[in-house]
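Fig. S4 source data, part A: sequence.
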Amino acid sequence: MISSGEIQSLRIPIYIFLCAILGCKLFSADQYWDRHDGSAGASTGSTATGNWNTSTSNWNSNSDGSGSNDTWSNGNTAIFSAGTDATGSSTITADLNSMTLGGLTVQEGDITIASGTGSLTLAGNANFSVAEGSTLTMTEPLVFGGNTLNKTGKGLLTFGAGVGGTTTIEQGKIDIASGADLSSGIFTGTSGAGNTNKSIIGGLGTVNSITIGDNDNEIDFIAPGLGYSSSLSSASSQKQVAAERSTGAVGTFTTGILNWNSGGVYDWEVKTFTPSTTDGAYDVLDFTTINFEAGQTFDINVMSVTNDGGTAGAVTNLDQTLSDFTGTGGFKFLTGTNVNNMGGNGDVSDRFNIRSDDFYYHNNNWMGDWGVWRDGGDFYLTYSVAPEPSTYIMISALFLIIGVNQSSRKTFRSVIDSVRKKFSKKPKQLIPSELK
């Protein structure tokens, strides 16, 4: 019979033996990318391009890059970079069979992990942290191996290849690049993150499943197209920002399942104001099954961009904002097969909260009304230029206010904001002065 003392003495050897079989990670250290061996800093310039393997000494155990470099050790956390000088765009080619990774951090610069030979595999549940103002683009396929990847930091993470896995977003945005088919990609939020950090999922590719909402384990925003749609300055911020990409700011994003829960926001951007033109004209979310949370209403931000790069501004075909686009003649922004918890066809505007102040502001058009029309699995954003009755009240009140407040220092826009907030049928809609 084995005594309790003998069992205790066997715990560590048994754990090591099991890890050898299962491939689990015993210890993980930080290694800093360093293309400037022997001197502090990661490079001799602003870029630090090179090959990532286990035979080239491109890594340093010191965060400032001082001292001698080392080779890569499997299971460690990769940090880009050593020091603060590699602030430009660097391409690191992952060129090794069976390379494992405990986590990845981008401290500065724009980093691309490019595809080489072999594969890059998570050694366990891993944090991928991208600092604000930086980007991380993965064109090297990432093998999850049953592990979970958690995105942190305000910077942008783009997946350009791979099949995906279970991914949570604590903060910032994950883009699925055009043509990327992450057929196993399941995306949710993290526990407790909803009220402190802002999380966004989007892109132009394909994933398996997405859950959005404002509770634990839900992503805050979904935003088709590449780059940010709304600000990350706070968890609740809806202020429009530029996508900061050369192309692909608007387009089609595809998911098998979309769970749209209360508080989840759809950032919808339009570049060309022509409903029948969908390719690169405005955002479309394509789904197989959409599960609306029963008894709830759902938030949509209508945002205007002026070019493929996503710069906030007036739409192309601006004259079309003087026309009505109603029913199935509107902008098809959701399209799919199975729809749960939405009721029947026709006008379903009462199930949606539409915030369109960014669109009004950039197009200098404050009178159009937005709604939602359902036709089976297709949902259309409708637009009517004719003022609703409450708008007539707004206009009358506007001139009354201007007439009796000639000495007021209020701007024309602030008057419109205050009048709309008082008389509109959507009084809870945020106005620009309230945006963070």
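Fig. S4 source data, part B ends here. Helices lie at 4-22, 357-363, 389-404, 412-423.
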